[in-house]
Design brief:
Helix content is about 35%, strand content about 20%. By secondary structure, the chain is of the alpha/beta class. Helix 3 (about 75-85) links the parallel strand 3 and strand 4.
Length: about 290
């Protein structure tokens, strides 16, 4: 049975005992509202480590005042069931006060282009909040490996940079996007979508898959691939495009004009009040 832990002190003692026993630790940081995408991360952590910790914390510091912190889904009972089903040993459920005990905050911030493009352009405080809370989780859990989904590809690259620059002795494991049967990327925010918006949102995966198909057929122009994706999304009347962009991996450097190394083709689009993100990786070596 998964052990529910609510305090940092208790988690630190568990980690100390686990390390003393010579066991490896896998960490899956989440904001709760767990779904099959999170389940795939937990399963991967279970396969690759002796002990698995899942954090379930809606992190207030990565939300701007105009964003959906209060409305963000919280499904703790369901989260416990899924975490246990997928093999987690500990579900860490701290309060905001537990994670942020001081009124005057200590921040961790990754600067430069990697946090200024894509979601960083319109959500300027977001990645500072992510880097800060994940640093806390890394210190608390002391994982050998930490698991993140490709759907949040920019987040994964930001955290790789942070791990490198701060000398964290761990590996970032980025796992493939898990999708619904009709192609929509699994997301905790999908529950916000009205039926018509849910149907319209399928244009995201359709446009990205079309770009991927064109790439596999030999198209290498970053401009043509990006423009084609944008045109398909814009043709959906219910879509409100935030961005459709391509950047070279791993550092999200400017697209080269030609896809001659791995590139991330990423989109962020609103349907009604719900903002969804999705992406594909175009890799000429595969």
């Amino acid at each position: 049975m998964v052990q529910v832990v609510r305090t940092t002190k208790e988690l630190q003692q568990i980690v100390k005992d686990t390390k003393k026993a010579g066991k490896t630790i896998g960490l899956v940081p989440t904001m709760g509202a767990l779904h099959e995408g999170h389940g795939s991360l937990i399963a991967a952590a279970r396969k690759e480590n002796d002990f698995v910790i899942v954090s379930d914390f809606v992190n207030p510091t990565q939300f701007a005042p105009t964003e959906d912190l209060a409305a963000y889904p919280r499904t703790f009972a369901h989260d416990c069931e899924l975490a246990e089903q997928m093999g987690a040993d500990v579900l860490f459920l701290p309060s905001p006060k537990e994670m942020y005990p001081s009124e005057d905050m200590t921040w961790v911030e990754v600067t430069g282009r990697i946090t200024q493009v894509l979601c960083g352009r319109t959500r300027p405080i977001h990645f500072r909040g992510v880097a800060t809370v994940v640093t806390k989780l890394f210190h608390l859990a002391q994982p050998d490996r930490a698991y993140f989904g490709q759907k949040d590809a920019q987040q994964a690259e930001v955290l790789r940079r942070m791990v490198k620059d701060l000398f964290f002795p761990l590996e970032i494991r980025e796992m493939p996007i898990v999708r619904e049967a009709d192609g929509l990327a699994k997301s905790s925010r999908n529950v916000y979508l009205k039926p018509a918006e849910r149907k319209a949102a399928l244009v995201l995966s359709k446009s990205l898959f079309a770009a991927q198909k064109a790439f596999e057929a030999g198209e290498r122009s970053t401009q043509k691939l990006t423009d084609g994706t944008r045109a398909m999304i814009a043709a959906e009347p219910m879509s409100d495009i935030d961005y459709v962009e391509m950047h070279a991996l791993p550092e999200l450097t400017p697209a080269h004009g030609t896809v001659d190394c791995p590139h991330l083709l990423a989109v962020a689009v609103r349907f009604g009040t719900t903002r969804l993100i999705d992406n594909v990786i175009l890799d000429p070596s595969k």
